[in-house]
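I'll show one example:
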Amino acid sequence: MDWGMKNRLERLIQPDGHCMFLPVDHGYFQGPTTKLEKPGETIKPLIPFADGLFVTRGVLRACVDTRNSPPIILRVSGGTSIIGKDLAHESLTTSVQEVLRLNAAAVGMSVFVGSDYEHDSLVNLGKLVNECENYGIPVMAVTAVGKELEKRDARYLGLSCRIAAEFGARVVKTYWCEDFDRVTNGCPVPVVMAGGPRCETELEVFEFVYDGMQKGAIGLNLGRNVWQHAHPVPMMKALRAIIHENASVKDALGIFTDEKENGGN
């Protein structure tokens, strides 16, 4: 692995081999998502606890302080919206020159295995990897499922992750599922967990994150279950303890409760 690629990955993945990324890219297809209407205000108290920020170039330029930013994973795919016909109909939207200009540590794009646009998204992934490898930029493939949430099982996610790795993604972001070790065991590159829609309780979040870490994930790329929560900083601290300190679900719940009772927002 070339020095530049290794350096960028090591800025994101910490010495313990784990990582906690904060995605705030939802607006690229959802618009002003609840609690993300003003991204800069939402992420400001959370940035100190993030190992990386997954964001679009527009929000990066407009809302992220250059003097107080974790490494950036730049969202480079898009082209559809929540009110459009098919969320899977994405293309590459950002050049590698722009990635370099913004000093991003990595890029991320969605792939939609099993959709009508499977071919397009996988070919786009291959093209992105080809170009980014020339400049030592890691590509994170996001195994997206659009509105078809029932596809989140180990067989489908394992297939999607393996294909993304075969196409050259250096990291794969995917959803947690039952038998998550089937997903990680079949993927030869690091896997980080997505959060998906809001969970009902903090306990539900801590349980799936802990299980995923025990079954081979290297970390987390979770947004709505943090910044849509009534107490995002306590959530961030509790999740960080699971990721970086091997905290149990009980420990994480205790950290969350203590931080909330001590006035954590």
